[in-house]
Amino acid sequence: xxxxxxxxxxxxxxxxxxxxxxxxxxxxxxxxxxxxxxxxxxxxxxxxxxxxxxxxxxxxxxxxxxxxxxxxxxxxxxxxxxxxxxxxxxxxxxxxxxxxxxxxxxxxxxxxxxxxxxxxxxxxxxxxxxxxxxxxxxxxxxxxxxxxxxxxxxxxxxxxxxxxxxxxxxxxxxxxxxxxxxxxxxxxxxxxxxxxxxxxxxxxxxxxxxxxxxxxxxxxxxxxxxxxxxxxxxxxxxxxxxxxxxxxxxxxxxxxxxxxxxxxxxxxxxxxxxxxxxxxxxxxxxxxxxxxxxxxxxxxxxxxxxxxxxxxxxxxxxxxxxxxxxxxxxxxxxxxxxxxxxxxxxxxxxxxxxxxxxxxxxxxxxxxxxxxxxxxxxxxxxxxxxxxxxxxxxxxxxxxxxxxxxxxxxxxxxxxxxxxxxxxxxxxxxxxxxxxxxxxxxxxxxxxxxxxxxxxxxxxxxxxxxxxxxxxxxxxxxxxxxxxxxxxxx
Length: 490
Ligand code: NAD
Description:
Blueprint: E1 5-7, E2 10-11, E3 14-15, E4 22-27, E5 32-38, H1 42-57, H2 59-62, H3 66-83, H4 88-95, H5 99-107, H6 109-122, E6 126-128, E7 135-143, E8 146-150, H7 156-169, E9 173-177, H8 184-195, E10 203-205, H9 210-219, E11 225-229, H10 232-243, E12 249-252, E13 258-261, H11 267-279, E14 291-295, H12 296-310, H13 331-347, E15 350-353, H14 355-358, E16 370-373, H15 380-383, E17 390-396, H16 399-406, E18 414-418, H17 422-429, E19 436-439, E20 458-459, E21 472-480
Parallel strand pairs: 1-5, 8-9, 8-11, 9-10, 11-12, 13-14, 13-18, 14-17, 16-17, 18-19
Antiparallel strand pairs: 2-3, 4-5, 6-7, 7-21, 12-20, 15-16
The structure holds nicotinamide-adenine-dinucleotide.
């Protein structure tokens, strides 16, 4: 029998002993456990937050100015650039992401740290214009303190970095709680950053279930801010628990993002944009463009090309660079995706590409690209996030119907609009209630472009020019420039 790697939590710059209760992490491609993480509880949350509080107040962190923190973030970025290959295998074993995608995400990790460093260098106090004589005022900023960062399993280190880098640049300390399905890369990342010079306790990682150690972190008296990425239900619970002790939250939640294709679109680009939108990462992406809304006149040629392209994708071992479709991240999730596909068939959607049949013999976690035509807005496959490689297709005769279909969702994360008439595309796009619009493009992220949702996709933004400011509180400092007079003159 192969011995499993066993991990403790990462608190105060060191790994704790593995806990009495452990959680298996299964390699979804091989179908066997490969590691065990500690099942944290309220006591774990308490020790991590106390460590984060001590570090927040310690001169080795509190004594750094914004420029020194920026220098440190640059040092961390260089260490990540040198050492990210060491983390590849853990990530693939945990969530089955293809090596090509993990490499691209990890190689980009230093970018998020350097962008936060650049913003930290620009932080300055502002002198305010007041409508009164004899007094002046400045707007200054102060960090929150210990911040809880809760992340999902699909892209653990990228999503963590969007929180961690700006939170540190602003002078906070962080306790991260990665998904119970994919925690190991985050633990190793904490150790890498500590070895690169991040003082102990500035970044801690606790592992375990959301309802246990996750909930304990959010409810803890030392927590000053919670940044959450995950499901709609998880986000709602976290926000309610944080609100109970007046702690602000940022929520990055799910989506059911539409791709609207007009008849005058560049068909080839649209096909590639749709394929990358919903089939890269097997659709396990918050901005997956999972609803295709296509003008009647081009529906058949578009679907033919799309099916022609994605039905040839090579399914298999995520460690193999030639693989184009790897496994879904875990068994329970794959079962959920297969059940949603089965229900869509029962509800009457027409399955024009069947990824369940295509994955036959590949293993319990594999589901191939799946396309449903003639989907109606009442069907589950139209309304609910699958978080898998499933595209729901509907068609329209006029822009008004296209808009109605696109907006027929409680989510508002992203949308794609495809048309070579840029004026029309822009006018249409601006009516969409979503946080990110891509016109003749899809899926990119950049440190200078904010991302976040509207409606049930959440609130608050990550990345963008305000990323570091998002982890700072504003303070106004008034200074009397002249003696003040008696407030109770006789
Ligand atoms: P999830 O909500 O089940 O879990 C996310 C994280 O929250 C995990 O670490 C989990 O342990 C924790 N958690 C769950 N309940 C909690 C609670 N009550 N208190 C504290 N922590 C709790 O989501 P998931 O299945 O890991 O991830 C998939 C979801 O994430 C999808 O809905 C997807 O759209 C969303 N997502 C959103 C973005 C974005 O940027 N908007 C990015 C990636 C994923």
